[in-house]
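Hello again,

I reread your note about wanting to compare the complex against the isolated chains. To keep things tidy I'm splitting this into two emails, and this first one only covers the full assembly. Below are the input lines as submitted, including protein chains and any nucleic acid or small-molecule components. They are followed by the predicted structure of everything together. The single-chain runs will come separately.
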Amino acid sequence: MTLSCTLLLMTAAGPLVLHAGDNPPDRVPSYVSWTPETIAAASSGDAFRGMLLARRCDHCHGAEGFSTAASTPNLAGMEKLAIWKQLQDFKAYKRMSRTMNSIAESLSPRDVADLVAYYAKLPAFADPQDDRAFPQPRPDQSHAAIASHLVSFGNGERGIPPCQACHGPVAYRPGVPSLATQNAEYVLSQLEAFANQTRANDINVQMRTIAGLLTEDERHAIAEYYGSGLGFQAGGPTK
Amino acid sequence: MLTVLALCLIPATRYYQIDVPLLRFLRGSRQVDPLSLHLSGEFVEGNLGTEQDPDGSVTVRMVAQQYLFVPHCILVPAGTPVHLRITSADAVHSLAFNGTDYNVKVLPGTISEAQLRFPNPGEYKMPCREFCGAGHYAMRSRLVVVARDRFPALGAGERGNCAAQ
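Full-complex prediction:
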């Protein structure tokens, strides 16, 4: 996988026009590019082997893909390409995490594909007996109204696209995580990291731009909305 | 037959002046790989925004993607030629400038070019005018035209935009 990404990087540099004054070198947010080969590589894993490997991830991400702490992302039923891309970015130090960088470095391309296949297969509704942190309490009335409007309609006046157009359940784009079963604290931390550029592995400045357009209150509202499991519902504002 | 041809030509004089897809393909050399815009080449993230040209005009580089134009706010000086270069990372988009005649079709794989000029300072909404998916109606960015003396002096590697405001 790393090899194909590097090859892709080298071939892509050839035919394109180089602009004057190329120093300092261009900042690349992520080496992942959604070519058919990349997508095939990311979705060719063996879920059974992934299940055996995933026992190393249980401690933080939970035995059923529902994490035990709200600051750690849930992986149950997550989009294949989304986990795959994040692991590639952790491996390449494009996304920084004290824990995940070294773990991702130790995984072979096959391990990554297998893990991805396993987590994508896990049901998004967990056994209620387990110790997951999800779902969290529902947002209060004013926050729920702000969030449901942003999630379903975005804000045309300010140019904020609706969350559900990419993060599901209305539509998905390659590499975009589903937010149906995500922890509020994790969603909020990532929105803040994108807004203040401490996380910058999004392709074409997508999430950095959107998170930067949101106000502090809106980020909290969206995080609470997804954290309480409302992300499963498509459509209009909450009644 | 001639009437039909004449009718076709009338709206084409202004609306399609800055975007003739056939000409664009014939001229060639404007092909980019929409999937690897962020890896190398003209549309890497550090190169997006307004660039000051040596002759006093400015070049604006943008990427259109579902459902966002990047950078989200463009800053240009008034009364100066603006060379717009924009490409798409996924679907077909169309960058319109509300309140003007300008409308630039954006196709994945090619660079759309347009020569624009904004005589007066002001703010224009730049919506997407080509249905591009579920979030199309919220795909809208801003163009801020400032007086020439208020436009910041940009160095060789610097790119300006007003997204932080």
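For quick reference: Chain A has two domains: 36-134, 141-232.

B.
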